[in-house]
Amino acid sequence: MNAPHDRTEASTRPSTTHEEVAVKRLSAMRSESALWRMAGSLVGGQGATAALSFLFWILVTRLVDADEVGAASAVISTQTLLGLVGSLGLGTYLVVELPRRPPEEHRGLVLRAFLSVSVVAAAVSLVVALVVRATGGGALAHGLESPCRTAMFLVGAAAAAIVLVLDEAVLGVDRADVQLRRNITASLLRFPLTLVVLLLGVRDATALQALWIVPILLSVLLAWRRLRLPGGATLDVPPPGGVRARGRIGVVVGEAARATRHYGLNLAVAASTQLVPAVAGLVLTSEENAPFAIAWLIATFAFVIPYFVSVALFARRANDHPLELARSMRQTLPVCLGLVLLAEAGAAALGYPVLLVFGPQYAAEGYVLLLLLIPAGIGMVVKDHLVAWWRVREQFRLATTLAVCAVLVEIAGAVVGGVLDDARGVALGWLVGLTVELVVAVPLLVVVVRQGRRAPVVEDAS
Cα 178 to chain center, whole Å? Predict the structure, then answer.
């Protein structure tokens, strides 16, 4: 009597197993689709910003002296770097922490992060401004020569830190569309403000600094209204673990300490792309820095695509098994590498006429700089994918150590190159440094990708 029942039960087991695998495959496909949607939103926001910033700089380079453009671009790139320094890793921390917290704590958590990073970024930028003004020389010193410019420098650094935190925090609540709208809003607002400033006859570095900072601050306010995080405006929300910190300072310090693991890694990873323009601003004159700044602006898009894809990888896989991220890399890695190569081909074919829009002096020098800068995106692809892997595995010490060594190699190359051969030397020296890094990084990435290939399909649920 039991035999027929046993055969029926045995015959259904394979069918059930296949159904489970099919469900897991479908779940994995949905997860990958969500990853690409998030990455697409991040890249779209940066792409829109790059395109509109490109038009903005076309306008100002036609109407403002190259000396003032070089000074303003040096200030803007430096305050962006200091915004990263002041971010304290809280943006990446919120990507992981917000999904784990009750919704009523989200608003207070993000507000405390804004308070922390704005104070730290402003304080650090004040020290930098005092040192630069005391030592003098270079485009950056020219951009900070007055108290008004220095004050805007402090505000700009604080705004840059807040934007970094906000644009990552929205990923923690699955609202990547907010950063997309914020980036587009900030870029679009510059044009009417630019027309007003130019009609008033103000055409110096001070005006360019204001035209960069004010739209960012307005876009943050509009994005905050759209985000509508639950919870009150109070900063005194209990931290995780049931232990309530007394007072705002205690809460802020506690959360900053928990973000420290990401902070050092964030600084090391982003330092090279932030430090290279700053190095150019220090070793080049304002006239030499102007075409470098424009070429860097265009080349940046080839760098940010792999970065934002890696951010999406981490945001989607932060609490998953590392093998799921390794499997996703098999899709993202060839796409990112292909886009960098496509960008280099496009620059070779269209770079000169595009730069000619800024003026003959920009095209003559900027075309060669552009062709030297874009291939560095290959190194960015490799590094950013490895960093995403190390984050998910929580290997922060290893990742930070290797990233710091990489930055030292890159910046040494850029400085030596700048001293020997001005703007082209900065670009070529940085590229040589990245090439040296690839000798070590490529074998590591190959090992990671192979692990994703060997991962069983049934682990693809997300």
Answer: 16
